[in-house]
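Reply to dn_fold:

You asked what the input looked like. This is it:
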Amino acid sequence: MSGVTVADALRTAAARLAATSDTARLDAELLMAHALHTTRSAVLLRHMADPVPAAFATLVDRRARHEPVAYILSQQEFYGRVFAVDPGVLIPRADSETIVEAALAVCPAPRRVLDLGTGSGALLLTVLAETGAPEGVGLERSADARRIASANAAVIAPQARIVAGDWHQPGWADTLGRFDLILANPPYVEDGADLAPDVRGWEPAAALFAGAEGLDDYRVLVPQLPALLAPSGVAVLEIGAAQGPAVTTLAEQAGFGVTLQRDLAGRARALVLQLTLGKGGASN
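and this is what came back:
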């Protein structure tokens, strides 16, 4: 519209998006930066008096329908790096950086890293980039997710190999070998959970839901982890905030000692699993 500036459009968009988002002003600024092909900082410092770009209105319409900003922008920052995303993968979240921190603390120099349910590749590729590990494998059953993870790997950690696999299927791990570090962020949301429309309506259900208690995938996956760990190997699992006791029990039954890690908000977020003496993995 003639005479409408970036500043005007941001105010109007933020007011509209307040019904959709708890971060309406931030969302509007990010969408404006995308429409202007620049950064949010540049918008605020240099473009507020400019005419509003024509593409901005369509972007705001999409966000008003609860489409996540990350999907609109086709990218999400995680641990200081930008990852490509689309509706075929979960959006990497800052809470999941707890898994990276825990992994780096307990296994700072892995030789082989496995990420189970790699999605966008955020966990695997971040750990590979941070540690310089020479080999990483991201296992993923979704073809769409494998496409995104492979594209991210080419940019962030080319030593990563993204492979098809499903831990619910017999023989899925037969050719993988053993790993110093295993990462996993399996589906763990309860089927009836009250999720925000941005999540339930847009993110892939197969990567979210895991039965009435959110434990179905843990029950299948955790007992299979010892056969994938090298001697002295460690696994780090993301969990839901209330799932620590239940998943800890599963892990202890599989022969693991378990340490709980909390995220920055103080919520249970990760379990670090290490095999107790005489349990699990074969010797070299």
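Residues 79-275 form a domain with the Rossmann fold fold (CATH 3.40.50.150).
Hope that clears it up.
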